[in-house]
Structure formats: structure tokens, C-alpha cells
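User: quick one, sequence for these C-alpha cells?
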């Protein structure tokens, strides 16, 4: 039975979707003003893995997400790059699609841009004004946060404290306009020349940050959804404000289960621009040949726990993934050359059945990928024992291969047949050896072969050139 940890109640709850067998899921996407960083990728991967697991369990999943393609960050970066806001947003939307495709993140059922739902945003804000939960001041529209019962529950913070913090962040102009420091903007007037603005009943302007998600959910999924996801840093104010807006608009419970993923640290430090460790995924993918190893690193930790990214943890993930791939390749090669022996191995079929059940037990417990992966490694051990056997019941061998493929596809890994990759040092030695052979320096070539062997890379010379395999 699937249980999920709900940030709203701070408890693990039995999962019951609104409509049996069908899940409506929304995950906050990035502001498209730069390449995505590891934190964005972690969130996208965490919820892609959850979506894949729900699909594996037989649910139909509608997955909606957004691009925030307007606002201060987009305006500032567009000026810096000498582009219009629309050109800048488009550039980073394309980059997002490319980077997430490399990480094997499935496309959303619908991915909407804030600028595409402007009429719906305006009528949503108008409704909140009409209901008396919002007020207009000189072209801005604000939401009366404290009028909404239970405001701030999702963040589990003290309301007075939130109030003080909000007051500390206000600039003079906002302080004058807001009835209460904790009120938040639904619409912001915009009169600067050359800056994008949309016409509205309150004058030209653009929506506040929170309203687009409420509107897209209402438009593409309906007034109530099963799962809303995002990074834990979004619980307040973003998701807190989404709840207030949406429940005021519809009068219904907005979200059944709030799921939040943890942070990514780089070399045990918080990621930040000032520390200079703000790694974009675009840069990482350019340096790193095996994108799915990066995906694997970001999947294998439970989605609520922090992940430490470093060269060491990435290497470790690569080693583990290579171990899984090697087990797959070894058995697949055996199956390919075996003469027909179509028997079933009843004992191993039993073991396989319990492996599948254990995998579901692990993942049904709030998508515990760490325990799920431990089960995968039991399967890997079984496959390695099998690949060494003299006689191989082919039907069962094929079942082992198919099961590993299916379980790893839940983690977004679909290239098990791929040969493992060399690290930079190994690749350099291999290149140097090719060069030595070209100039017929066989002493150097032999020495390089020994050095590679010491690193666990076995090199053979063939008519096509060097071939290598890891020990
Ligand atoms: Zn959002």
C-alpha cells in the first residue's frame, strides 16, 4: 500500500487519489532566465522518478508543470544579454528541454508558460477581488493573507514571526501600499518604457509570481489535485500563497498531498552564487560523458534528504551504475550465445518474485529509492551468479534481464546495454597509448597498458585499434 509523506500534515499518509487509478500531479518548474542548476535538476528528477513509479504501479498520471517566463529576473537578464524578454525566455526553455532530455526526464503532459495564461490569470485575480480577498492599490493587486483561514499552515511557522520577517523585507513603496506586510502581490503595475507589460482592468502590468501555478492547475487539472511537488524552499511563501489563492477561488481543498524534495549541497556546502559553487547542469553535461550517471546520483538518495554533490559522490554513482550495467551485459551476452535451453528455473523464479515484491515494498514507503536500489543490487548479485553457471535456463535468464530493465527504468536509467565509460585519467592514458603505437614506441605502449591494467582497464589490440574492458 503506497504511503506518502505530506508536508501539510507532517505525517506519512496512505495514498488515495481523488479518482481511483488516475493521478493529477503538478510540479513547479524553473524561471527561464538561466541554465538550470543542480537544485532545479534534482527537483525535476525526484518528481520524474515518482511519476515513473506511479506509472509502474498502474496509475495513469497527468503531469503538469510551468515555465516562469516573466518577472524581475527575466527582465534583468534580458537587458544583460541584449535580448527581449521573450527571446531570453525562449533561449533557456530550449536549453531546459535539451538538458532534461539528456537526464532522461520525461516531458510533462502539459508544460505551460506564464505568458500563455494571461487571460485566465486576469479573470482569477478579478474573482479574488470580487470575493473581497484582494485589494487594488495604484495598479497593484494584493491578496489579504490573514483573511484566509489557516494561512501559513504548510510552512509550519509561527504567524507572528512570518509577519515580522515579511515586514523586514518590504521596501518603502510596498510598505505604503500593503494593508499588512504579509499580504502578497497578485498583479504588479508596470510603466517602465521597454519593459513587457500586459493590459488589465488595473492598468498595464504583469502577474505576481504565485498566481500562475494556481491558474495553470485550475486550467489543466481542475480545482483539486492529488500531488503538488516542488523544492522544500517553495513551501513558503510560494506554495502557501498558492493554497490561499486557489482555495479562495474554488472553495475546495486544493491539494491532497504536498511533496517537497530536499536540497543539493556541493562539497558539503550550500549551493550559492557567492560561494562560486553554483553549478549549472548545462556545464556538467558538457564535461561529463555519461548523463545517466548524473541522473543516477540525483535519484538514488531519497527525495526528501539532502544530496551532497562532489566529484567523489559522482564517481561513486558511476561505479554503482557500471556494476549494474555490467551484470546486465554479462548475462545478456550469455543469453545471446547460448544454444537453446528453454527451461525455467523454478527456484530462481521464486527469488525473482520476492525481489519484485520487496522493490514495491521499498518504493511504496514514500518512494524510498535508497531501499529500492538495495533490492536492485540483490538482483544484480543473482544475475552475476547466474552468468557464471554452466547450464543456463534461458527463460529464467531472460526474466532476470527484463526485470532489471524494468526496475531501472523506474529510476530513469534505460541504457543498461551501454558499455561503461572511462574517467578522464583512463581516457588520457588510452589516448597516449594509441599515440605511442602510431609512432611504434612499443616500450611506452606496453608501459601505458600496464598502468591502465593497474586501474582496472584491460586493453587489447585488434585490427580496428585498441579495445578495452573494465576488470
Ligand atoms: Zn509554483
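Assistant:
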Amino acid at each position: 500500500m503506497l504511503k506518502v509523506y505530506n508536508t501539510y500534515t507532517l505525517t506519512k499518509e496512505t495514498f488515495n487519489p481523488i479518482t481511483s487509478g488516475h493521478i493529477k500531479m503538478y510540479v513547479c518548474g524553473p524561471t527561464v532566465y538561466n541554465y538550470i542548476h543542480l537544485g532545479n535538476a534534482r527537483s525535476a528528477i525526484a518528481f520524474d522518478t515518482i511519476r515513473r513509479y506511479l506509472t509502474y504501479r498502474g496509475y495513469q498520471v497527468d503531469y503538469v508543470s510551468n515555465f516562469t517566463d516573466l518577472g524581475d529576473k527575466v527582465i534583468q537578464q534580458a537587458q544583460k544579454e541584449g535580448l527581449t524578454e521573450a527571446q531570453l525566455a525562449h533561449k533557456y526553455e530550449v536549453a531546459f528541454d535539451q538538458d532534461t532530455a539528456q537526464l532522461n526526464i520525461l516531458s510533462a503532459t502539459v508544460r505551460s508558460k506564464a505568458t500563455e495564461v494571461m487571460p485566465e490569470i486576469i479573470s482569477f485575480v478579478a474573482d479574488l477581488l470580487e470575493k473581497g480577498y484582494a485589494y487594488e492599490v495604484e495598479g497593484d493587486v494584493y491578496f489579504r493573507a490573514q483573511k484566509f483561514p489557516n494561512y501559513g499552515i504548510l510552512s509550519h511557522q509561527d504567524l507572528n514571526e512570518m509577519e515580522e520577517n515579511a515586514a523586514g523585507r518590504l521596501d518603502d513603496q510596498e510598505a505604503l501600499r500593503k494593508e499588512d506586510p504579509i499580504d502578497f502581490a497578485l498583479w504588479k503595475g508596470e510603466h517602465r518604457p521597454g519593459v513587457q507589460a500586459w493590459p488589465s482592468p488595473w492598468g498595464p502590468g504583469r502577474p505576481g509570481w504565485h498566481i500562475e501555478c494556481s491558474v495553470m492547475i485550475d486550467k489543466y487539472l481542475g480545482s483539486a489535485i492529488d500531488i503538488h511537488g516542488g523544492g522544500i524552499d517553495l513551501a513558503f511563501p510560494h506554495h502557501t500563497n498558492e493554497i490561499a489563492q486557489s482555495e479562495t477561488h474554488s472553495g475546495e481543498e486544493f491539494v491532497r498531498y504536498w511533496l517537497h524534495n530536499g536540497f543539493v549541497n556541493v562539497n558539503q556546502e550550500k549551493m550559492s552564487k557567492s560561494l562560486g559553487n553554483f553549478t549549472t547542469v548545462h556545464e556538467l553535461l558538457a564535461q561529463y560523458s555519461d548523463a545517466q550517471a548524473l541522473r543516477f546520483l540525483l535519484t538514488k538518495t531519497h527525495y526528501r534528504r539532502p544530496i551532497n554533490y562532489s566529484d567523489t559522490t559522482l564517481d561513486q554513482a558511476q561505479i554503482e551504475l557500471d556494476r549494474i550495467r555490467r551484470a546486465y551485459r554479462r548475462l545478456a551476452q550469455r543469453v545471446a550465445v547460448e544454444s537453446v535451453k528453454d527451461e525455467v528455473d523454478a527456484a530462481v523464479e521464486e527469488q525473482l518474485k520476492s525481489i519484485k515484491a520487496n522493490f514495491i515494498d521499498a518504493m511504496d514507503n514514500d518512494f524510498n529509492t535508497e531501499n529500492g536500489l538495495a533490492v536492485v543490487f540483490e538482483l544484480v548479485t543473482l544475475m552475476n551468479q547466474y552468468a557464471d553457471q554452466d547450464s543456463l535456463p534461458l527463460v529464467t535468464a531472460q526474466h532476470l534481464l527484463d526485470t532489471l530493465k524494468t526496475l531501472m527504468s523506474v529510476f530513469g536509467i534505460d541504457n543498461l546495454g551501454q558499455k561503461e565509460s572511462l574517467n578522464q585519467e583512463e581516457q588520457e592514458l588510452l589516448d597516449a597509448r594509441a599515440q605511442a603505437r602510431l609512432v611504434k614506441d612499443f616500450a611506452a605502449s606496453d608501459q601505458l597498458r600496464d598502468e591502465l591494467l593497474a586501474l582496472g582497464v584491460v586493453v587489447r589490440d585488434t585490427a580496428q585499434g585498441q579495445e578495452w574492458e573494465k576488470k
